[in-house]
Design a protein that fits this description.
With 70 residues, this protein is mainly alpha-helical. It is built from four helices and no strands.
Length: 70
Amino acid sequence: MAAKAEEMKILEKVFDLAKRELDPVEYAKFLAIITPKIGDSVKEIRKFRDTISEEEFLEMLKKKGAKITP
């Protein structure tokens, strides 16, 4: 159990570093790279896309620090 806690601590540090050092687009790409590729990602993305509006998505990006320009 201690090994698992140590692994989680290391992962938290890695994610904190990535959030500070990468811009939002790079961070999204980083997450895509390390995420296991299981299932139908297109279906999952469409399901997510259909649950929120474009405005909600843009607002979510702004809250994360993304610079949105027209």
